[in-house]
Amino acid sequence: MTRRSITLTDQTWVALILVAALLLPWMWLVGTAWAKWSQYHDLIQRDLPRLARLQGQVDMEAPLRQQLQQVRDHLAGQTYPAQLSGTQVLGDLQARVRGQIQAAGLELQGTDQHSPRMEGTFERFSITLSIGGTLPQVIGFLQALDGESPAIFVEQVQLQPAILVSDPEATPPQRVNMTLRLAVMRQT
């Protein structure tokens, strides 16, 4: 009988070894798959906020492009195009300003051109003017500059009385000399 129990135990061991040999690769495969799934799951959970931000950027692309076009359209009315040379820009600026000076009834006493300066994607052209006239004429001239397109920027103003009049209602009105630095922008 002992012999039979030894044979049965050997068969049990053989069966256990066979089952283990068959299950071990499957268990290894399931364990590896679980580890990979956990790793990918963790990566996805880590990257979900990034993906949400990217999706938000994709969703905002069309409105941002539309706003960019609106800004470009606005700048086109406020600045000179890049195709114009610096000489053309300064010539147009001086012609427009002289027209406004004449329309306001002021006297142009002198002009001076300054070297252009780069400011980001724009080039700034400026001139200094010396003008004489009455205070209401100067105010009218400055108001007229506000409506110009492309925009004319007033960088500096110096106002000095030419004839001192203490009464604002007096005739003749207060005469002033004004030194004025004006600038325009050109896209580059």
TrEMBL record:
This is Type II secretion system (T2SS), protein M subtype b. The lineage of its organism: Bacteria, Pseudomonadati, Pseudomonadota, Gammaproteobacteria, Chromatiales.
